[in-house]
Amino acid sequence: MKKKLMILGAGGYGRVIAECAELSGQYSEFVFLDDVEPTEQLSYPYYGKLDKVYDYVDEYDIAIAIGDGRIREFWITELEKKGANLPNIIHPNATVSPGAKLGIGTVVMPGAVINTGTLIGKGVIVNTASSIDHDCIVGDYCHVAVGAHLCGTVILDTHIWVGAGSIVIQNIRVCKDCILGAGTVIVKDIDVAGTYVGVPGVRK
Length: 204
What we know:
Elements: E1 4-8, H1 12-24, E2 29-33, E3 61-64, H2 69-81, E4 89-90, E5 95-96, E6 101-102, E7 107-108, E8 113-114, E9 119-120, E10 125-126, E11 131-132, E12 137-138, E13 143-144, E14 149-150, E15 155-156, E16 161-162, E17 167-168, E18 173-174, E19 178-180, E20 185-186, E21 194-197, E22 202-203
Parallel strand pairs: 1-2, 1-3, 4-7, 5-8, 6-9, 7-10, 8-11, 9-12, 10-13, 11-14, 12-15, 13-16, 14-17, 15-18, 16-19, 17-20, 19-21
Antiparallel strand pairs: 21-22
């Protein structure tokens, strides 16, 4: 594995990814790309706009630090075509079962737990202090936000945002392109895309 990491996105999420990767000991050199030049001081160099990444695919591993799942999907798809290495970034204080499998470009933040039998797709964000219990399936480009919890054998399709502090109870399926609002509790399968809020969660 290369010891140099290029991070697409120089905002707060990008800085967290850099810290996770540094603390894990995976990398010793970091640079940022972003279409908006950072106005705040970064701990590592800013190399320019996102499309410069194509110049570095053979030199750096690449992490996508962009919250929008559609944009993550675009960059991961493009960079896979170029043969880029898109590592998983796992904070050393996260717990990932050896019986779980993670797709490329997934980030697991501090305090997160992923239990055995779980399958995580590409470009997933498992955010701070969230948990994914046994035998779940989390589709590509989902985001399990801060303090959210998936109970056992939950199945999420692609492009789902599980909001901060929300809960999906066991044996639930959620169709693609859903947003589960902060603090929402999902107790029934969701078959129609949309935004769901409340306890129990209902479509807005």
